[in-house]
Write the structure tokens for this entry.
Amino acid sequence: MSQPLSTTTHKGDAQDRLRSIPVLSVSGGQQYLEFGSNPALNKAKNLALQALLNEKPNDGLVVESSADCSLRFPGSTLRQHKNDYADFPRINHTHLSQNQQIADIVTDWLRAQLLGRAPDSAEG
């Protein structure tokens, strides 16, 4: 019978394995979420949410320091965070998955991971 992973793997080994997994994070910079069709209610809810987040930049829901995967493993070349694309100021949390520029960034990154080379840096 095999032993549970926790007893056969040292903590350092597990961390080394985690460091070997490539990760890309992408964030938005628009500090506003849509809660419905009522502009006054949206504004009030966003003011309250921003007060709770209390950190800029954020994408309306997640603060940048939390979204940036490169901060979790400093010095790892396999952790990349993108917030330098042209649409960054206009993208909130809701629209991260709906933006063509972000889709292109992710596609280029995935292609680079599969082919073993650096992603294109055409996104600004």
Summary: Strands lie at 23-26, 79-82. The chain has one domain: 22-115.
